[in-house]
Design a protein that fits this description.
22 strands, eight-stranded mixed beta sheet, alpha/beta
């Protein structure tokens, strides 16, 4: 039967991830859509004279997906901000701040992030604040930690935000203070960062064009790793407007799902909640689906803001019985989930501690009982899940949104071990148990919490439970390793199903959008220890090449 096609991709080993035809050698594309998939015989069925792209025997597979990132924040950081090394010590950070500040106007903000959360004890006194003030030349400083939940601020920034000894800790947040004077030392946890973020936003509001440039830069970086579909985990109205602008001008080269913030304890954007939800359809576009909400239910373990069933390791601030708190009651969480389900929206719930996970499951159970069987729910991170709660994810049809770089050996893993007993700290991400129970596990990065949104590192880490480059030794709960095919699925069709984009992407099937990557190796045949070194040579979106590692001369 004749096939109409604009472009024929041939001479490739193609992993389609379609069980009905797992391997192919030819893709036919018409108007950005896959018109046919098969062997070389397809070329004889093409009408007319399509453009022929010969891949020289290269490996092709579907474009990858990232179920959890913050692409506009990452793009803005790459374009405009100071980027710090999470493994750097305080002296290295101060040198970097001083070098960056040297080229700034005297009243300009020093903005950036990436400092390691393990530095919190060292930054928790006035000596560190004085050093920061000196390095920045007295300028206002706003530096996010590597979890993006906490901030390190200078005296000038604290003053502009109105944060002083008399300023009370807000609900859900902590201002770290000097024990003798109660003066803030510059460390702000969770919702305490909001006044600081508001002060910075007021001083330097961005335009739609600037926000669009940040979104586009984030997507360009994702393309270098083969990612063509993603879910931004905490969307603002500024992001929605930027994505609409890009799509309206033909420059949104990815499938984007956004998660509209119900509550905000770390970003400082407005509006949030129902006011933001009410605007969502204004910003829907062909490649952008504002179909989720985002709930921050707890914080992060290294800052002791995640909510656990058992106590953290004791310290002078929290004592011996501290288990963290949730940012909503069960009743409030259930109410919000019912409310958004009635509006046809899905929900991503940030739950890092096992108590927060249990509360999420209890609320979802109530929503299911109220008749919302089809509403999609993701538990974001779900790093720690009590053994008795693991089967409940499958029973309640809850998706596990996981980001491997947050738990395999590295600085973040070490920070977890510093705040929790090691035997508990290492029982993290029970992926094997979840898959065996029938849970959909979807891969993400949480970039820029991690330095790069590299899904190949995530895939290898899921299989080996070790650091993909070997930079950090050891394994974390190796019994929870999954297979390579399961890991690849988590970053392709699994993530697409989690986001609700599997109708257009995630596998190479006739009728889906033509998204695929060209690789330097076959991840299914090389030793698993080499999968993390996979290099993307080309990325194609909707039939167009959007990234070329070796562009034509």
């Amino acid at each position: 039967m004749p096939v109409k096609a604009d472009v024929a991709h041939r001479n490739a080993r193609i992993h389609t991830l379609d069980p009905a035809r797992p391997l192919a050698s030819v893709l036919l594309v018409a108007d950005g859509t896959l018109a046919a998939i098969g062997g070389e015989e397809l070329l004889e069925q093409v009408e007319g004279a399509p453009e022929i792209v010969d891949h020289g025997g290269s490996i092709l597979m579907p474009g990858l997906a990232d179920v959890h990132n913050h692409h506009m924040i990452a793009g803005r950081a790459d374009l405009y901000e100071l980027q710090l090394d999470a493994s750097a010590d305080l002296s290295v950070l101060l040198d970097a701040i001083q070098d960056w500040s040297a080229d700034l106007a005297p009243d300009a903000w020093v903005v950036g992030g990436g400092w390691g959360i393990g530095l919190i004890p060292e930054l928790s006194d006035l000596k560190a604040l004085r050093a920061l003030d000196e390095a920045a030349g007295g300028r206002p400083v706003l530096l996010r930690d590597d979890s993006c939940h906490n901030r390190w601020a200078s005296s000038a920034a604290l003053a502009l935000a109105g944060i002083d000894a008399a300023f009370p800790d807000p609900p859900g947040g902590t201002i770290v203070r000097d024990p003798a004077t109660r003066a803030p030392v510059g460390l702000l946890f969770e919702s305490a960062v909001i006044p600081l973020e508001h002060a910075y936003i007021a001083s330097a509001p961005t335009t739609v064009g600037q926000d669009a440039a940040a979104c586009r830069r984030g997507i360009e970086i994702l393309h270098t790793f083969g990612v063509t579909a993603f879910q931004d985990a905490a969307a603002s109205v500024q992001m929605l407007a930027a994505l609409k602008h890009l799509d309206d001008t033909g420059r949104l080269d990815a499938w984007v799902v956004t998660s509209l913030q119900i509550n905000d304890h770390v970003l400082g954007t407005t509006p949030i909640g129902q006011e933001l939800i009410d605007r969502r359809e204004t910003y829907r576009s062909p490649h952008h689906r504002p179909d989720f909400v985002k709930v921050f239910l707890d914080g992060v373990p290294p800052a002791k803001t995640a909510s656990f069933l058992e106590s953290y390791l004791p310290d002078d601030v929290h004592g011996t019985e501290w288990r963290g708190k949730t940012m909503m009651s069960l009743a409030d969480l259930t109410g919000w989930l019912l409310r958004v389900a009635e509006q046809g929206l899905a929900a991503k719930i940030h739950s890092t501690g096992d108590r927060a996970v249990r509360m999420s499951l209890d609320a979802i159970e109530a929503v299911r009982a109220a008749g919302h069987a089809e509403t999609r729910f993701q538990i974001a991170h779900g790093q720690y899940i009590a053994e008795e709660d693991q089967p409940r994810l499958a029973e309640l049809d809850v998706i596990a949104d996981i980001s491997p770089p947050l738990w395999y050996p590295g600085p973040i893993h070490q920070a977890l071990c510093n705040c929790l007993p090691r035997d508990r700290a290492e029982r993290i991400h029970p992926n094997r148990n979840l898959l065996d129970a029938g849970v959909l596990v979807a891969g993400g990065s949480d970039w820029p919490v991690v330095p790069a949104p590299n899904p190949w590192h995530g895939i290898q880490g899921l299989v080996t439970r070790a650091h993909p480059t070997g930079t950090f030794p050891g394994h974390v709960w190796p019994e929870q390793a999954i297979t390579l095919h399961e890991a690849v699925y988590a970053y392709t069709l699994g993530a697409a199903r989690a986001m609700g984009t599997d109708d257009v992407t995630g596998s190479l099937e006739t009728g889906k959008s033509a998204e695929f990557v060209v690789l330097d190796r076959d991840p299914f045949t090389v030793p698993v220890e080499q999968v993390g070194r996979t290099t993307v040579m080309q990325t194609w979106f909707a039939g167009r090449k959007v990234y070329d590692r070796l562009p034509a001369a």
